[in-house]
Amino acid sequence: MFDSFLFRFFRRSVLYRLIVIILLLCVIFGGLIHFLEEETFPTVFDGIWWSIVTISTIGFGDYVPHTVVGRILAMLLILIGTGFITNYFVTIARMAVSRENAYVDGSLPYRGSDHIVIVGWNERTKQLLELFAQSHLAKHIVLIDETLEERPMLSAYVHFVKGNPTHESTLIKANIAEAREVMITANQHKAENEADMQAILTILAVKGQDRHIPITAEILSSLHVKSAEHAGAGKIVETNKMISQHMYEQLFSKEGFVRK
């Protein structure tokens, strides 16, 4: 039974183990100093208070051992306890820095829910995030991209996940199962057919995680619209078709085209 307890204890995080050890030291040394110098430390709580103040190197001086044995106990507490306290603060600092680095480089999983996942980083995504920043949805955006080296500094609320959106591990990091909606943009660094195939594969991967989640997908070629719909996209944005239509309307509008 004791072996099982030790096994579970050492499987815990370093921070957890440090906290338990420090608390045990405070209780043990606090109890000992109370029994050794009961007049100076009337209660066990006073002893524990002294232990915490001592190993944290604060040293208020309100409780000080007067006997030789008490001072030897204090020296042992300082030599043993300060080492654990130092490790405790170093561990907290390391965890904070590690978490911040993971947040910037896109390796930190998203723990929220009811968020909007945007796949792909390009000029349209940038403009879309700027629009979201003006709304109440700004705090619920997760961006997935495998080309970015670090989180874009457009908004403090955008959570960046670096990775291939067709991979299950990437979608799990974006907590896709708890998302409100997914928006897939076309990869502008690839040819139209290749970009559309990647978008369709992403749709299938997302549906594999949650078949009920609404998906809006950008498709460049009209030939792949039906395939995207069959894959599970509820809404299709045909960018090239929209741009062509807009150019035609501008060309033949009264303001944009004058026949001479």
UniProtKB/TrEMBL annotation:
Gene3D superfamilies: 1.10.287.70, NAD(P)-binding Rossmann-like Domain. It catalyses: K(+)(in) = K(+)(out). Its main location: membrane. SUPFAM superfamilies: NAD(P)-binding Rossmann-fold domains, Voltage-gated potassium channels. The chain crosses the membrane at residues 14-36, 72-90. It comes from the Bacteria. Keywords: Ion channel, Ion transport, Membrane, Potassium, Potassium channel, Potassium transport, Transmembrane, Transmembrane helix, Transport. It is a multi-pass membrane protein. It holds the Pfam family TrkA_N. Coiled coil: none annotated. GO terms for biological process: monoatomic ion transmembrane transport. It is found in: Cell membrane. Residues 113-238 form the RCK N-terminal domain. PANTHER family: CALCIUM-ACTIVATED POTASSIUM CHANNEL ALPHA CHAIN (PTHR10027), SLOWPOKE 2, ISOFORM D (PTHR10027:SF10). This is Voltage-gated potassium channel. It comes from Priestia endophytica DSM 13796.
